Amino acid sequence: xxxxxxxxxxxxxxxxxxxxxxxxxxxxxxxxxxxxxxxxxxxxxxxxxxxxxxxxxxxxxxxxxxxxxxxxxxxxxxxxxxxxxxxxxxxxxxxxxxxxxxxxxxxxxxxxxxxxxxxxxxxxxxxxxxxxxxxxxxxxxxxxxxxxxxxxxxxxxxxxxxxxxxxxxxxxxxxxxxxxxxxxxxxxxxxxxxxxxxxxxxxxxxxxxxxxxxxxxxxxxxxxxxxxxxxxxxxxxxxxxxxxxxxxxxxxxxxxxxxxxxxxxxxxxxxxxxxxxxxxxxxxxxxxxxxxxxxxxxxxxxxxxxxxxxxxxxxxxxxxxxxxxxxxxxxxxxxxxxxxxxxxxxxxxxxxxxxxxxxxxxxxxxxxxxxx
Length: 372
Hints:
Elements: E1 7-13, H1 20-24, E2 35-39, E3 42-47, E4 50-54, H2 59-67, H3 88-97, E5 100-106, H4 109-112, H5 120-139, E6 145-150, H6 157-169, E7 174-176, H7 192-201, E8 205-208, H8 217-224, H9 226-246, H10 249-252, E9 258-261, H11 268-282, H12 294-301, E10 302-306, H13 310-313, E11 324-326, H14 340-347, H15 353-368
Parallel strand pairs: 1-5, 5-6, 6-7, 7-8, 8-9, 9-10, 10-11
Antiparallel strand pairs: 2-3, 3-4
């Protein structure tokens, strides 16, 4: 395995500049601009209408992990964040340090919480600014920094389509939508123009763990507890998968590609087996009618990222190994930086070099248009 070339991380993140929205936001929203507020117990992300969130869950706690002990997310300051999280030149240096040649870059904890903001016009403006900044960040090294734009999902579907077109023109490689949308479920026919536009533009559509238009990460973990809350967010991606497939969306848009980010892969084989069993018994009265077993749509049109999921890799023969993608999750504490090479060797132990290369390089390169 030592001969495997430098990896492509299909799941990495930024930490957005502290004053980004205060500098760039439309003046009518400027007094409510997302910002970082320093309090005696540390720095917090503030988004209008969203519960304050401690920023330690991101790059500020990475240094703790490198020192050998992760403590509370409370009490950290923005200036503790590793500079590669927001400085593209420092990011490239960290890629070199970690045997990584390119990353698919998602928003940080700050940006992912915009989905929860209740004001649709405010959310749209926050996302516009984020996508502009991310395109600038990635333009420093477009073959190594590949951005994924946010879509505004509280307003009209036309807004989401317009932002998709704008993001693509700015060089972003995919878009991300929330995994939970209780106000307007993805089975709704309202989304048809969005699915059609994404298919026509050949843009992968991702959903990331912990994204919702209703309940943010912190309130969920406070309500359920840390581990239960995080597990609930991971299981939300299984529900998202079921919702999308059973609504007939992959069937209606056969070229549309979905990416499940940070969901892991250990749950997939059992879930698909269960869905196929129920489809086999009940497909004659299910609505909408699915012409193929649910697993067929998943294996053809869904891609999944994982970090250290040895259990999931043991089920790879039941999955489409051409659609499984490793991710470093930089700069989060649950990520593999700066020991990605050692972690890959451990997690993929016993697998052929060809199999490993698919999941740490080739699959992501094919989906996002990079050379293998």
